[in-house]
Protein: Sodium:solute symporter family protein
Amino acid sequence: MKLHPVDLGIILFYLILTVFIGFWISKKASKNLNSYFLGGNQIPWYYLGLSNASGMFDISGTMWTVSILFVYGLKSAWIPWLWPVWNQVFVMVFLAIWLRRSNVMTGAQWITHRFGEEMGARLSHIIVTIFAVISVFGFIAYFFVGIGKFATVFFPWDLSFTLGGLTISSEQSYAGIIIAITTLYAIKGGMYSVVLTEILQFIIMTISCVVIGYIAFTTVTADQITAAVPPGWKDLFFGWELGLDWTGYLDSVNQKIESDGFELIGYLVMLMIFKGIFASLAGPVPSYDMQRVLSTRTPAEAAKMSGLTILVLYFPRYLMIAGFAVLALAYLIPEFEAMGSEIDFESVLPLAIERFVPLGFKGLLLAGLLAAFMGTFAAFINAAPAYIVNDLYKKYINPQGSDKTYIKYSYLSSFLLVFIGVLGGFFAASINSLTLWITSALYGGYAAANVLKWIWWRFNGYGYFFGMLGGLIASTIVPGLFPDIAAIYLFPLILLISFAGCLAGTYFHRPDNMDILKNFYRQTKPWGFWKPVIEAIKQEDPDFVPNLNFKADLVNVIVGIVWQMTLVIMPIYLLIGETTSLIVSFLVFAITSWLLKKYWYDNLDNTANA
Structure:
């Protein structure tokens, strides 16, 4: 596609601006590790909330979500529960408070806060650092595939070449260039530049979302959507089977549904809920979301930041997603039919942009989508080096090093992480395959140990180490043993192996030192099975009040999940012309908003300071 010079100018201006911000703010970011990785805990929560939302507005995820909405219709609103997307609600309601009370810099450093400094704790500290690095490799490969597919549709130059017998495609060349620019500003400016550029990116993306939604709303009618999709496509709810048959509409979609393994959607959603509860209770994985929580000023602000992320992210994002999906359904079906069985459903988004976005506006939109990619990618490469430098180099190799030395090694580790992750991107089959592996296999190995660390006093450092080790090994090996089974269906087996490791490690060694456990519980105050620790604390402080908020937190989480779901489905109903469903969804949104305001937000300061 040939871009107008104005469009190219806008994109170029945006790229130069982001690099300039990174260099401009680098002096402030480089004072010490806390400034570099957490912004000195001085960045206001609402800025961090907008930054976090921008970080979750990634281009690979947007391409994937457009493709599943195209294929599965309203039922696609359930499929992101694979992550699960509602882990943000758990973070908002109580986990952000627990995590921020720790006053640490990384998830690995939190391990010392929980388990102490003995051998089991040291092993746990190392294994969670390894997990953080592996997950970053997976996400960099995921971003590499997504941005490459996206860029080749819009930029006119053929950048393929051969190097030493290895053929580099245009997709890979474009991905490498954009990743290099993003890495440059993120490394130079640290958390300050990441947050500042992500706020700019969020503004651009929100404008883009509204414009795309407007184009779809004024261009596509409800009758066009009804004619383009099979019966059941507009139904949010389902039975045991998906019940979508695209025969006579776009036959190749049936092959996509079969290859995804989502036909038994009732069983799938039950698995996603089962997985989601464990994954959400485990807390944020050691990445940019956790970094935002740890960067806030207070525990209450950490919870507010997480709530703002949900509120500002989902409606505009799904306005764009639904806009592109309905435009493709209304006008691109003949093009997809011509592709036959070779159709690439992840190309729905870039094809819709090419066809329907007017000249002159393409530049802003493409800058916005590049911003979405760059924001997420930058957030990851800001978070990951903290684990290498703070949790390995500083802790075990050079504890007396200068801040200048630590910042220098942060730069170096960032480049190394990006280089290895990009290599992985060369061998990734698709965005969908990476999504399923990360969400279902890798996170399956994370869940067991990280749930028990919060809720069970007897769980010790050896239990954490062997649980994480078993989970990492299982998430790597098990999918290869069952190549024809979607990764989500293997989650219970991976979880079981990880739990077995947790229990074996826990009872292999005595409980952790009671003083460590008392200090952890006093400061963090989770609910769960902490009776012996609470009794020991009360012997020293009879007035001590433990966490009694389990039932209130449970209710707020359920209400929050419904609230979040309305933010997903309202823009879809708006753009497919389902007025009655839109009104019902809005009423549910209003009721759940009131309930959260009354029973969560109004009590937040008391809960966070209890």
